[in-house]
Amino acid sequence: MARLVLVPTILLCLIGYYGSIAWTTGLSFTSSSILPRSEFVGLEQYARLWSEPRWHVAFRNMFVFGGLYIAFCLAFGILLAIAMDQGVRGRTLLQTVFLYPIALSFIVTGLAWQWFLNPTTGLQEFVQGLGFENFRFDWLSRPDRAVYTLVVAGVWHSAGLVMAIVFAGLGSVDGEIWRASRVDGVPKWRMYLRVVLPMLSPVLLVCVVLLAMDVVKSYELVVAMTGGGPGYSTDLPAKFVVDHYFSRANIGLASAAATVMLITILVILLFSGLAGRRRAA
């Protein structure tokens, strides 16, 4: 009976999820444009994809944005979790403040930061209104720096998630370890750095995987905050795929880009699994 109950869920997953993946991968080997076509063209769409300057920018931005996003989320999240663990004053209030952004969608986050960093209505205009007329913070309108504004907004949104996960992990650390460190006179910062955080490496690995998945499928933040601009300087692969599916009506090329994203996710999962096994060994 238990197996029969699971049959509809299994079928839905196989058809709706894995079936869609197989269909999209199959379309990437066809000449589909406005409508799906069955004409097989081999790797032609992938060759077109990697000859697109916009795709190169989007793929490079994924690593620039992703590396900084993951690094700063981990750094701020761990520091906040340690502060919570040490019983900082107003801990409940701080937990609420830092967890609040997680309740917002990336659309809301992007719109809020787009307004805040807008050179004509946000931070720059406010500081100049205070009398500092030479102050400039116009990264949102600069093609060489706009992608870093996505990092700022993303870290503000997701650092609280890392804090919550790491704080839960810190709560599971055996109290005997801390008592032993006090007897030996080991500073707390050294205990966190050399003992506690290495013990929580599986927890940190989970955080890295979750953040990396956010990077690969990032779309809402880019659309709400920069629209991919100036030009296409802040494009990410997910926006490239959606634009070519719906705006440019190039299903074959979009399917090839989506398949490359899938391969990227599989590589992330493979490396995380190998790291977990190495840690267990």
Automatic annotation (TrEMBL):
It is found in: Cell membrane. It is a multi-pass membrane protein. Keywords: Cell membrane, Membrane, Transmembrane, Transmembrane helix, Transport. Pfam families: BPD_transp_1. Residues 59-272 form the ABC transmembrane type-1 domain. The keyword Glycoprotein does not apply. The chain crosses the membrane at residues 57-84, 96-116, 146-170, 191-213, 251-275. The keyword Transport applies. Coiled coil: none annotated. InterPro entries: ABC_transporter_permease (IPR051393), MetI-like (IPR000515), MetI-like_sf (IPR035906). One of its GO terms (biological process) is transmembrane transport. One of its GO terms (cellular component) is plasma membrane. Belongs to the binding-protein-dependent transport system permease family. This is Sugar ABC transporter permease.
